[in-house]
């Protein structure tokens, strides 16, 4: 209930801030089964748009453990289905916890396999989780403002979903298997970007 409530609040806030969002190919989202929703991480607010675009499905997500040190923020995160992960030294729970969630609850998972907003390399944790939980991977992309100032200018936001990726045919998540998963997902990201707006360019701001 808390997740649904918070998503409703976020939906209103995003509309007030921007009000120019288009959610495309929502019919690609699996019905009556859990999945991992993955996207390239381009802004700090793209997780919010993904959760809103994929409604009414409810999601869990990883958050760095430092965020849970604040008791108020920890309460909000936990009730919004977040769980802590040590990004510097991820232990077995970084895999076991999301696998249990996908298997034993009605929650799907939002993940950014590239890790940070400034990375394009996919990481193997997402593939291993999907394999162990026996769920599909749904690729999607965010295209839109990359700065908060541009978001407030009500520039167009597009969240587009792609066809679910089934990795059950990959026997092992070794180097060969992980490489195949990466190829499939990166190819999906490229195809979805092209279909949404081929002129969109993700530019990383120089620090």
UniProtKB/TrEMBL annotation:
<dbReference type="InterPro" id="IPR002123">
    <property type="entry name" value="Plipid/glycerol_acylTrfase"/>
</dbReference>
<protein>
    <submittedName>
        <fullName>Lysophospholipid acyltransferase family protein</fullName>
    </submittedName>
</protein>
<dbReference type="Pfam" id="PF01553">
    <property type="entry name" value="Acyltransferase"/>
</dbReference>
<feature type="domain" description="Phospholipid/glycerol acyltransferase">
    <location>
        <begin position="35"/>
        <end position="145"/>
    </location>
</feature>
<dbReference type="GO" id="GO:0016746">
    <property type="term" value="F:acyltransferase activity"/>
</dbReference>
<keyword id="KW-0012">Acyltransferase</keyword>
<keyword id="KW-0808">Transferase</keyword>
